[in-house]
Amino acid sequence: MKFTEKNKMRILHVVGGMNRGGIETWLMHVLRHIERERFHIDFLVHTAEDCAYDDEIRTLGSNIIPCVNPSQPWSYARNFKDILQKYGPYDIVHSHVHHFSGYVLRLAQEASIPVRIAHSHIDSSPLEANALWHRHLYLNFMKALISYHATTGLGCSQVAAVDLFGSNWKSDPRWQLLYYGIDMKKFGESVDAMELRKEFNIPNQAVVIGHVGRFEEQKNHQFLLEIFAEVVLREPQTYLLLIGEGSLRENIEQQVHRMGLREQVIFAGSRYDVPKLMLGAMDIFLLPSLSEGLPMVGIEAQAAGLPTILSNTITEEVNKLKSLVRIIDLSQPAEVWANAVLAAKNTKHNTAQADSLAVLEKSEFNIAYSVNALTKTYVDECRKAHKVE
Q1: Do the domain assignments include residue 264?
Q2: pLDDT at 210 over 70
């Protein structure tokens, strides 16, 4: 199959909104690095609000296309099909909205889109375990739609693949793994740590625990604060730097006030310069999530040379540098986690950051590897769909 300006492969990504988060940041890495003279990418989003990446997306020649009210299936279906007619034709619909991808791909098949991809970015099973019967009915129905309508399924990790495609996913050749890739160049840049800490009023000699993630249930911020409180009891000159936004931010801020930690917990909001903050402002990275698919921030933390403490719910695939990564069972009390944080503080400099970066640059988590794997999937699936040599 040959690609020219006239017959670019056209891909429509379906995502909640292009704010800064793991999925969205990876998609931006893809958009920046993909051969845009061969592949045209648009984004269908489930919000009418402006999002952090929208301007850059438009600058790079792609469209942001709102298709709101996914909870109203008939209205959503009309809007979805109108969008395909207005902005298409598309060769591929690539859906990132987890279980709802079943409905998206059904609509895409009805519109004769030849390649329909469901992408699983999370293991949602811990969060769905206690759901009511009607929620389980919805989940099973959507999984059935994915199985029937998807021509391809991608998982960011093995646990993410199981969550959407079932425990026997390896027996179906449609289901594949595609690891996130990050732009390693940002982690090779020099950073003025003193100036960066000055921005947040953090003393130069203070220990800074970092966390990057949306303020949502799965990220487990409440337990993160319990761990931090234990650390502060033993190491008072410690700060917690929280990067992200989300629906629970106000609740977490109130909890910080109740715990008397206002002076030491920093809410940095959504940031475009996470690599710089990891390199210059953080000493330790802490991620006690209830569930994940494969957290890209865990890879970024290792690229920054940070001791990285993860919950056991996070897949081992993220652990590329065993000298930096410590896994702790979520059933362990905050005191055990605090012990690990303090131990990490004392061993931070055992692995040089340049060495950590070199390992990751040669791994499947490099954006070049990720984009090559993704575009190969696109080309192969389009060839099969169109029976083109």
Answers
A1: yes
A2: yes
